[in-house]
Amino acid sequence: MPVKVRRGQLRSAAAVALMAVLAACGRIIPPGQAPIPPVAQPAVPVVANALLAGVAAGPAITNLGIVRSDALGALRSFRESCPRLTSRTDTSGLTRPGDWVPACTAAAKWPDAEPESFFPVYFETVRVGDGKTLVTGYYEPEIAGTRTRQAGFDVPVYRVPPDLVRAKIGDAPPNPDGSQPLGRYDASGLFVRYFDRGEIYDGALAGKGLEIGWAADPVEMFFLQIQGSGRLRAPDGTVLRIGYAGQNGHAYTGIGGVMRERGLLGTGPGQYAGSMQGIMQYVRENPDAGKALMRENRSFVFFRELTGDGPLGALNVPVRGRDSAAADPAFVPLGAPVWLDIDRTEANGLWIAQDTGGAIKGPNRIDSFWGAGAEARTIAGGMSGRGTALLLLPRGTLARIGTAAGSK
Fold this sequence. Notes:
With about 400 residues, this protein is α+β, with helices and mostly antiparallel strands.
């Protein structure tokens, strides 16, 4: 996703999101495509949420130029988000569940023939901070894999182990955000860190019946973990769709960044292209060093089988190619429409924030989802756009926020 292990089930969702900058995490670059030059990530402001980052009114929605084809997908995804929008707490500080009820009630019956007229009636645009955005992309990869182990398919795809738990209060120091750390209780009852990637590769989970599938290529599986969801296609053409279910509690380390620090990526003699293909080439041409490199990302993702017509994002609703995006819920209410105007025209227009990502942090940081297949891989892999982002919030939101701020 993500991920990117994305926090949502695409993690996607629960998966950390890949960014376009290999120094951060090794975003996929398709074969034959020039590598994306390293792009410095915008500094994440030290503010808790969008309300503290500052918000201001944006242009009228009628001036955005929303087209019917773009609005239809956004309207459908917005509908699917409404049950969560009207019930969950918005950590951005911008909206309350009840604020979304009028738009969601109308969306349920709004005719698909006139989707572009829906948004100006029920929304207003809001700029968070300076509105400057960095937009990357992710997609749902497909690799060779089977449901049951067979010759040539022996890379396990694990479900969440039952002994992966959060520490009881007092058994371990809390995380910086106040949550309890993930780990396990050993035979003596002591809480310890969970097995890391290397230990799992060495068989720490083997023989416990946790496998939900088997992949053919450990390197492809490594990158599918970073995307956070994907498809395993068997030789007979059957497909097993898997999505993020959990993570082992260890911090994510982007191996692209590790390679860059060691001078392994570049255009000089002995260096490899700054792309997923370049990283994979290094791993395959240097098997021992490549295996050691992958182990440096101690984070490990667990999966579950997905059913339905799309991978699930952090809202637990399907994410749709060209309609759904990941954002930081501290700055974007999950389920809200987002308008992008950037230097990559294919990503301009309406998106619905339905997912999150470990690398998708700060105001106006967006990761666009492009679906599955070769075209999705190409676009997502090369996506790195800059411009402006606007939130579409229920009408009256900005006035209410201003009134509340003035009364303090």
